[in-house]
Fold these 3 entries.
Entry 1:
Amino acid sequence: MKSVYFDNAATTCLRPEVVEVMSDVLSNCYGNPSSTHGFGRQAKSHIENARKTIAESLGAAPSEIVFTSGGTEADNQILRAAVRDLGVKRIISSKIEHHAVTHTIDQLCEEYNLTVHFVNLLENGEIDVDHLKNLLESDSELTLVSLMHINNEIGVKIDLNLVAELCKAHGAYFHSDTVQTIGHYNVDVNKTPVDFLVASAHKFHGPKGVGFAFVRKNSKLKPLIFGGSQERGHRAGTESVHNIVGMAKALEISLEKLDYESQHITQLKTHFVNRLKSELPGVMFNGDSDRSEKSTYTLINVRLPVSAEKAPLLLFQLDIKGIACSKGSACQSGSDMGSHVLSAILSGGELAKPSLRFSFSAMNTIAEVDYAVDVIKEFVLV
């Protein structure tokens, strides 16, 4: 049986170079970074070198990078601190944000007297920029806008620069979940006046369990986790040195190879889309994920012309054939809940048809795409 991995939006494999640097740290650098002796200073040096590498990749200052356990923690910290510490009274977001954002907003609404607005969405899941402008102009209360750059299920993008400039012009803070962005696109915080960004290493061939938040200088955020004074007081707890070093190495390599790898992945996606369109009548793509100008190059979300009776067997059939993909985001796998993203943009009849997300990396091949399409055709057309 073939083994084909098309679930890279959920997580990616580790690059060999990342495994190598992590293994070296695990074997030879076991000191506590907070210790003042030589073993501790060695570990601290690894962390600060990693921080510098990541900061330079974003055009940020090292002091603006806060290491976390991943994107979910970073989102939680920023949203909670914005309300608790910065005095935010109103949040503008969307109904297709990652649950790390939507569930945190729900919890904050239970604890604080917040006003929450959801920006209107176009049919393909894009935000209605005019509605966002109206929302920003409609109230003078201190506002946080939280909108992800690239949606993890349908790949739709926002204009990060445009939204950041709108927020700046109206005196609002801007937080963007860029978990599907960092490592796949160049981001320069000197050119984009965003206040807060988040990233997760395992989305760009780094280790799981580590990520970072970009927190612009003088934001005055307090920690989510209290204890020691690690991360300049932004996050307590002994740092995971090997994971942090692995993340920095993964990001460094991803950006060094960005031009080549993005071209290769774009070719994979284009080939996948073209074959499905030409050989599978009735196939549809959610969120315009088949259009490169509207969607990230890293994934497609396909709605297949399959009966309601046959639909539940599709993912099972692909798995039997060795093809890994996703019914929704990985965070929803194993639950009976449907996709909140697709529910926000599709009608009942469209939702009844099976939708699958195929997400790609530079390690995938055209032959794997062809195999996946052949398996899908066999299931749908027989």
Note: The first helix runs from residue 16 to 28.
Entry 2:
Amino acid sequence: MRISQKGLYALQALTVLARQYPDGVVKIRDIAQEEDLPEKFLEAILRDLKRARVVNSIRGANGGYQLKRPPDQIFLGEVIRKIDGPLAPFEDAESLRERVKTDAKHRPLFKVLLDVRNATARILDHTSLVDLCRP
């Protein structure tokens, strides 16, 4: 599994929004400044997160972004999949399962990779934005 810079920036931005939930609407400029992120890249990331229905955007002078759901209901695995795709080290989990079944010569290797993918997914799918906000 690989998390891109875009995925890391998305998680950093969402952590800022989680700390302001439910009352705060945060401007892109403020997120970029607080997390030392490039503002233009952050704009594109937040647009993607809006399309993925993770955040809402509010227009106007007091506008900005806010989480669409409570931070304890947004999990890292969901965000990473929406930004970077599958969590599998290569291919997807179903392809790995199929290789374990059909490739006897390399079965142990593919089984280990599937186990790594499953352990990673369990951790990311049970870690919410609230967990990232705890000291």
Note: The longest strand covers residues 55-58.
Entry 3:
Amino acid sequence: MMFSAMRHSLSAITAVTLLAFAAATLAAESDKSPRLSTPLAPTVNSAPITYLPPLKVDAPKAELGKRIFFDPRLSGEGRRACVDCHRPEQGYSLASDISPGSVAGGGFRNIPSLINTAHKRHWGMDGRHESLTAMIEEMFTSAYTMGMDPLLMSERMNQDPDYPRLFSEAGFANTDAANAYAAVEDYLKMLTSKNAPVDTGMLSEAARRGKTLFEGKAGCIRCHHGAMLSDGDFHALGVAENPRIMDQAANRQALMAHAAALGRSADPDTPQDLGRYWISGAPEDMGAFATPSLRELSKTGPYMHNGAFDTLAEVVEFYYFGGGNRGNRDPLLRPLDLDLQEINDLIAFLDALTGRDLSSGRYVWDAGYPAEYPTLRYWDHRAVSKPQP
């Protein structure tokens, strides 16, 4: 079931089948069964669920940012665009357990959705960035993502006859990389959830019952509340490591390189992603990751920081048993006292958190790019085979 090829939310009927097996297992193996209990009741700090307000967007900057986001020439290899890992039809995420990485090596974490990312208060699953601009810059320049040199990025944009005009129309003095990052940020502000059933009130009866469970008996709202359905905090859930990190040298190397870049280290023999701990150094942050927004869930699987679960039913099953078995697990995690109908209703509510499709021409660049010249390989103004001194 885990890390399988299926990359979408199960239907309610299939979810019942899966959780029925889990319930039968609990009943048949009482010596292995968790002690079912209801999680702690929601607190006054659990903000009510509400819609996300639209963000102020500079239209010319956003249009420029859209062009940059879809331009494969603006990566070091000249063939990879932001959209290759953040696909509109997949909720601006990628239907893969972990990032495919780049020519430098593999990835080691799941690719998050960019819908609503401009509403966050910190970025990266470990919260290593306090601004969206900083996160955008890392994605362009890191060897393990797009591997783009900022000077070369500017030269390639100058090589395109349309970019200087678009930068000028957007109010930028030049086509340098910093202005490109700012333009992409304005584009991402456009990607805000719209007209999800939870926002319009057009919930099915099952979803309404699921919302009541979410906010009460199931206790989900303790960590998933407010407009983003996230507390913006970090929690250790005890999720098992993705075996690809151990089995694939490229993925293992990427994890170790990430730790080293943060001034930490990872054991090459038993690599573990320690998440927030690598940022804070606090023991209580060992294996903790940012609480994700639950919006657009039905489009953005697999789930968890390392893509451990392919479907929402698997995620609910994980919480049904009280989370993972690894150390430092958050004390808020407890087995759920839910019957099959309640589980079904909860999944119906989670499906109701997905809004209107954002893959129309307003959000997607489909006009193409000039193709009458070779892409510069280096930033010395000449497409030569090697850098000049």
Note: The CA atoms of residues 122 and 130 lie 5 Å apart.
